[in-house]
Amino acid sequence: MTVTLADVAARAQVSPATVSRVLNGNYPVAAATRERVLRAVDDLDYVLNGPASALAAATSDLVGVLVNDIADPFFGIMAGAVQSEIGGPGGRAGGERMAVVCNTGGSPERELTYLTLLQRQRAAAVVLTGGAIEDAEHAAAIAGKLRRLAEAGSRVVLCGRPPSPDTDAVAALTFDNRGGGRQITEHLLGLGHRRVGYIAGPEERTTTRHRLEGHRAALAARDIEDDPALTVHGPYDRRSGYDATVELLRRAPDLTAVVAANDTVALGACAALRDKGLRIPDDVSVAGFDDLPFSIDVVPALTTVRLPLHEAGARAGRIAMGKEKPPPGGVATVHGELMVRGSTAGPR
Amino acid sequence: MTVTLADVAARAQVSPATVSRVLNGNYPVAAATRERVLRAVDDLDYVLNGPASALAAATSDLVGVLVNDIADPFFGIMAGAVQSEIGGPGGRAGGERMAVVCNTGGSPERELTYLTLLQRQRAAAVVLTGGAIEDAEHAAAIAGKLRRLAEAGSRVVLCGRPPSPDTDAVAALTFDNRGGGRQITEHLLGLGHRRVGYIAGPEERTTTRHRLEGHRAALAARDIEDDPALTVHGPYDRRSGYDATVELLRRAPDLTAVVAANDTVALGACAALRDKGLRIPDDVSVAGFDDLPFSIDVVPALTTVRLPLHEAGARAGRIAMGKEKPPPGGVATVHGELMVRGSTAGPR
DNA sequence: CTGTTAGCGCCTTCAG
DNA sequence: CTGAAGGCGCTAACAG
């Protein structure tokens, strides 16, 4: 019923092997023969059977992309960038690799499950985005899975995640979250702020910890007390920013600035401040992190640290495909850039 | 080297068929036997070979999701929702289906290419999101591809895209773009606006056309002239909103409101107005469409039409998996809800 | 409930 | 440059 390679071969009057070679283009085939085969393919509307080739060739053209939440532009941008680079060298509808996007929701189990599923698919590569969960047991489990994936021939690339030891990753592009966190707080301190609230991300995640460490380093460098009451943890979403800000304001009505773990959280913080009748930045300055597309459009525009998400994702994609050499030592640090905008100013 | 079903069978002292049955759980197997097999699987760290099963079973556990741009939350939200519903009935790391996200960038060729690639993968289902391109030739090509996909056993579901004839889609969930477009303009007219600029999406797309038709219907219902100078087309991005607004202002300095094709475009429009020294909504009202998460956080909050993107995506996913019955006739219209917020008010 | 027997459709040596 | 042959790892009838 469904047309197979053999049908094409018959129609083109060549052997199945020849058709295979034409389709994969990895082997010399006479131009005339190729033409004949291609015509037969068209005539028959033939479409290669992916699973069959994957089985025979022991590798598929699927690339896994693990993200926390694809609805979040932070991940959407990276996933899109990865995807834009994994296409083959072009040509017909061949050579193209496809991205399997796996939404882990930040859950360790789902992360593991998806890795297994990708191993099952014999994924050509796997790109893990976003911060890692800081739990020894889980880290070991992940490392084990990644090792097995690598052994099975998948190229593993970390994007925006710190390199973890014995992972067999081809490369790790890690964001300089610590440096960025430090920059943003330094900017605020430089403006004269002394009571700075910090809305951190969820605990036990490298991203959260690094950004917070940067913040603290900036405080320490100026000998400013790191009042524990000024730090609140919560998920990376708007709601958390809102609630945390209300809480911070309750604990420390004297604060003059709020640093949020990321832009989305910062948005929630702004909303809370506004609801309390506080003006930004006149009464309270607000800063975010990531520089998502909307951040320049909120009013006042958000001061934040720009992370080159698209570039990083694209590079991860190219490295995963072997189109670009991994960085020396397999690790590259991607730095953020402080974007000073209207949401921060000197304290009252 | 790599461990296979046969290895597991040997270790559990059963036949390969039995192992297969345990793993797929579609067949009765004695509890004791199952235990033994499962233990062997664990001991050997066995992972099923996806391509091999797909070949033998003639179906894969991949679900294609076509989107214009995964970095855009409009699509990210739907893709995430689809993905959340395609998981199997649960259980071990089995039964899980994975989402192959295909970024078409709005290009007809890429749309076709990806459909072919999904057919090659023998995708269990394919969900097409977003509006369709209005070009007879392309529409026919797509319809043909979809028909072939359906014949090959993939369940095709449209999400946010009008039902196209002879497509063999299991279901089409279409957004009521016309109704939404009409509502938003009616809202503005009700406030007293008479000169309303309209920033439409790219031409030749159903979404663009329907929203614009709704806008015009609202004007017509009030016998207000549809001044062609008040409509500008452009891509669905911020930049386009900015540029279009500058152009509208040039053409019609007397306009008192701007309706954007979607929220992202509206953001650009707001930025342009602000740069021109115009206040929102005091000088010019602005309205968007979609109600993306950031829309409530911009200042002033955006009046817009909320589309239940997550719900629609989830439903599409369930229908694609056969977990939910398709709507009667295969077509369901998903209505938007007018969200009146601070960005619109009566004219000066 | 379990084992046996054939393929699924393609790639890939190996000859020629 | 092209053909022939074997097997990739699993599933799906059939028997039993």
From TrEMBL, chains A, B:
Keyword Signal recorded: no
Pfam families on file: LacI, Peripla_BP_3
Keyword tags: DNA-binding, Transcription, Transcription regulation
Location of the HTH lacI-type domain: 3-57
Matching CDD domains: HTH_LacI (cd01392), PBP1_LacI_sugar_binding-like (cd06267)
Keyword Transcription regulation listed: yes
GO molecular function (one): DNA-binding transcription factor activity
Annotated protein name in UniProt: Ribose operon repressor
Organism: Streptomyces formicae
